[in-house]
Amino acid sequence: MKPVEIDNSGTTAGTIEAHGVRLRPFRLDDIADIAASCADPMVQRYLDALPSPYTEADARYWVTEGAPAAFTAGGAAYAIADRATDRLLGAVGLSHPVPQRGQAEIGYWVAPWARGRGVATAATRALAAHAFATGTARLELLAHVENAASQRVALAAGFRPEGVRRSGGPARSGGRRDLTAWVRLADDPPGPSPRPLPDLPGGRLTDGVVVLRRLGPEDDDEMYRLHTGPEVVASRVPPEPPTRDEIDRRARGAESQWLVGTVASMTILDATSGAVAGGCALVHDQPGSGQAMLGYSLLPQWRGRGYATRTVRLLARWGFDHVGLGRLWAGTLPENVASQRVLEKAGFRREGLLRGRLPGAAGSRNDSTVFGLLPTDLAD
């Protein structure tokens, strides 16, 4: 990878100017800004390889030795700079080049004073274009599962999800972390990657009585209480209580699953008090045919108030109007009459019984009653 690009956008030797940012070599007068940025808690949280604490001595080493070595190794290391002031806004680079595969890994960080301005997306797009123009065929972007901001950058820069690399990187505190893999190819279409599951309008769904918002780590305690309740455990597949670690990992990774387009997990709140009433999810299990499954559970004190029916209607309307689904389905155990009544009140129709569909306790199998909903069935 050559660190020079000259094009009609006004670049000079050693710089890339595109998408509103300037990528240039690091300089000694960047040291204070590099040190302040790399000592920031957010940067430290997700870049496990950075020294901690990060000092100006570390920044000086990076400017004089680390960044030049990246180019020598066939990668790249650029400062992201403001085009008007030339002040450092962050860093972007290429690492782990595999020349025989035409492949490299792209990564970045953004200074605290530059966040929220699209800097990471612009820099990623600029460097990706440069890499493809100079022979790279495939770029990988790896992010911690819980680093949703980085995955949003990947989507905006046209990268597509390829799965999770289990224990893909070492953690600063010991052990290893899972990493999500996002990839862009040289011949991928321009622009952002499509979102199978869009964000909720305004960050939530509500009918004035219940509120649905994205599941997050702040919901760990209530979700653990919900999913270890005997009635909820009985409807799980298989019918076993989750561990606290499973609940924590689900909450930390909920936004990532949403961005990837597999599951939209939400917390049900009482609109008046803001208290957690339960949880629900839309599982995008058949995207090719425009179908998805929904599920829901309520904490005991919130049952019998019509909250489940309201939740199903909100989820269904969002699925049809915003996700673009053509069909929703749900399954219940045959004896779960209460859940069947909820579905029927929301407009679902009973479609049949699937014998032995679900794993049960002690190696047994459970039947599943299946309900379906079309946009024209949705009850007001």
UniProtKB/TrEMBL annotation:
Q: Which UniProt keywords apply?
A: Transferase
The answer to keyword Transferase applying to this record is: yes
Q: For the N-acetyltransferase domain, which residue ranges apply?
A: 21-186, 210-377
Highest taxon, organism lineage: Bacteria
Which residue ranges run through the membrane? Answer: none
InterPro entries, per database record: Acyl_CoA_acyltransferase, GNAT_dom, Ribosomal_N-acetyltransferase
Q: What is this protein called?
A: GNAT family N-acetyltransferase
